[in-house]
Amino acid sequence: MITRIASTLACAITLSAVALGGATTARADAAEDWFLYQLYRTHQKWYWPFGEDYILGVARGVCHDWSVGVGYDQGVESIAATRKWTHRNSRYFIALATRAFCPQYYTSAIPAEGRIVDLPGP
């Protein structure tokens, strides 16, 4: 009987350790957290009705566009048309996404008037 209890207890401890170990590996990306926080601060409904994964995908798409040579004006037009956002919101989103996920393009791809003044990095 004591052996059975000890065996059950050992199994429970092992399962708990596995569960806790798995939880520590599921950390959020700091750039994603920063990006989502900046979007929340605007009080816009950026990802309604889709959710955070959707909007993070759109943001990472901005970086892909830079990498294949899409220009700033073309990017703004594309996001405004496909997401049905204003040009102003599209410019803000592009600047924020670039700053968070591909900062190497922030000053080279975005004109000075399209950059966000005093925007801290992630």
Descriptive keywords:
122 residues, mainly alpha, 68% helix, globular, disordered N terminus
Protein model, in words:
The chain is mainly α and 122 residues long. It has one domain. Helices cover 68% and strands 0% of the residues. It contains 6 helices and no strands. The longest helix has 24 residues.
Helical element count?
Answer: 6
Please indicate the count of domains: 1
For the biggest sheet, the summary is: none
Specify the helix fraction band. 55-70%
User: Strand pairing plus helix content: what structural class?
Assistant: mainly alpha
Rounded to the nearest angstrom, the distance between the terminal CA atoms is: 56 Å
Give the uncertain stretches in residue-range form. Answer: 3-27
Radius of gyration: 22 Å
Sheet-strand content, in percent, reads under 5%
Mean pLDDT: 80
Say how many strands there are.
0
| Helix-strand string | HHHHHH
Gross morphology is: globular
Can you give me a brief rundown of this structure?
With 122 residues, the protein is mostly helical.
